[in-house]
Amino acid sequence: MKSFDMQRFLKTLKWIIIENKHKLTLWTAASTLGVFLLEMFFFYMNSPFTDSESYWKVVMVVVGTCSFFITLAALISVSGLFSEFSTKQRRVSLLMLPASNLEKFLSAVIYSSVVSVACILLAFAVGDTLRMLTYTLFFHQPLYSGVGEMARDLFAMSHNTISMGYWQLMLLEVLAPIFFHATYVLGGSLFRKWPFLLITTVQIVVTMLGSMLMMFFFRHFDFSFVENFLNETTGKILYYVFCLLLATVSALFYWLSYRIFCRMQVIGRKWVNV
After folding, report:
1. Is the pLDDT of residue 161 over 60?
2. What is the pTM of this model?
């Protein structure tokens, strides 16, 4: 059997989607209702609107709040890429599929990272549209779409970054989400229970320890020579080294996740998958 075949991969992905279609549908419907109720709450608490500008400001607050919850839900989905196969029967079904380990692993990653996140975005779009239609038909307010504002903000941010020549910043904007994705994929592959909480706790602890270590060095050592060493050229070199390190660590996390999946057993430990 070849390590990767596109037809087998698509069939495996289709099988995972079918196995989880009821939960995915319920999750999407509940998220749609949650977005609608959240937006209605924000608009109700800030009504009546004296002009279109005040109405638009509430739309921007709603977009920011929903963006936070969308990001949170996406990370939870990514970290739970194997949570659907926590029972012995479903684990056996996954491991016994006529597909290679790489195809099974990629199918689970695509399902949790693309299919589930697409359903989250769909829920936001539908919930926002329902809010917009409700306020337009019953309260005679102007049509301001949160989805449209979010899309315009993302486009304007990317356009400004490119037009100003900040390709280095664009590189970091791409590598940072990939790094976080790889981190939560690794956590979802390693931890069997509460993967999102555990990997988030680990990230917070590592960040706090790193910050405390940096503060210790800056307080007890003289770094004035750094100002003489750093210039535009050396700064760019260090920036690219940091980006390369970020990409290397991300690739390492993906590889470790795959190796952990290859060692996954039908009956594993209580908290980890190896």
Report:
1. no
2. 0.79
